[in-house]
Amino acid sequence: MTHANTRHPASHSAAPPTGTGAAVLAAIRDTARVHFSQARGSHDWDHTLRVHRLCRHIGRAEGADPLVTEAAAYLHDIGRAHQDRANGKLCHAKIGADMAREILAGHPLSNRCRENIIHCIATHRFRRGEMPQTLEAKVLFDADKLDAIGAVGVARAFLFAGELGARLHSPEVEIDRTTAYSIDDTGYREYVVKLSKIRERILTPTGKRLAEARHRFMTSFFDRFLEEYEGER
Question: What does the pLDDT average to over 39-67?
């Protein structure tokens, strides 16, 4: 697949899409939202809207194509329900990219734009898959990861654990012996296994700046969490 160049002129960030672009985005947004009617709270439509806002913030600062980043933000988690039903055995990024290809076929987009949106979705996941190659894919990757750290990230970690029926904390179990989607898939496990490593994987300068503050808050929270759990404070 041929992707768009990794850099774009800064003029792309001057304003959000208007005219046909705005109409296409509105239609994509409405289509995407339907896929979240039964979504779990940790990856619901509210998460998508937060990622969309972060894409606008980061994309404008980095000079990304707003039509691509905003469309990708709306569509990036449309395959999430399939992964959740499979207890993590399926990849929602791959499924979502396939679903998005069908959705985007019905909109007046250039092939270059369409393929870039699909690439953004296919590469936004943290754990596996190919790395983002275009600037727009890097913007979506960062936006999605930023929503997983900081104050919102802490809240989502415990929300996800609650959705699984996991314990508040499993201090007697070594984390490397725990498994995802289990009773020991706690908020603290999510922090150790995934969230604590996100700052180092952020790709854009703007994303890195935002990640620093969020990482500091999150680290401080979990340090305090352990102290309170053990009755030390």
Answer: 91
* Residue 212 CA, distance from chain mean position: 17
Choose among 195, 187, 196: nearest CA to 160: 187
Cα dihedral sign, 124-218-211-151: positive
Q: How far apart, in whole angstroms, are the C-alpha atoms of residue 212 and residue 149?
A: 10
Q: How far apart are CA 153 and CA 49, in angstroms?
A: 15
203 versus 94: which is more confidently predicted?
Answer: 203
Residue 125 clears pLDDT 90, i.e. is over it = no
Note the pTM of the prediction, 2 decimals. 0.86
Dihedral sign (CA 207, 201, 79, 44)? negative
SS3 assignment for the chain? CCCCCCCCCHHHHCCCCCCHHHHHHHHHHHHHHHCCCCCCHHHCHHHHHHHHHHHHHHHHHHCCCHHHHHHHHHHCCCCHHHHHHCCCCCCHHHHHHHHHHHHHCCCCCCHHHHHHHHHHHHCCCCCCCCCCCCHHHHHHHHHHHHCCCHHHHHHHHHHHHHHHCCCCCCCCCCHHHCCCCCCCCCHHHHHHHHHHHHHHHCCCHHHHHHHHHHHHHHHHHHHHHHHHHCCCC
Report the greatest alpha carbon distance in the chain: 60
**For residue 87, what pLDDT is reported?**
59
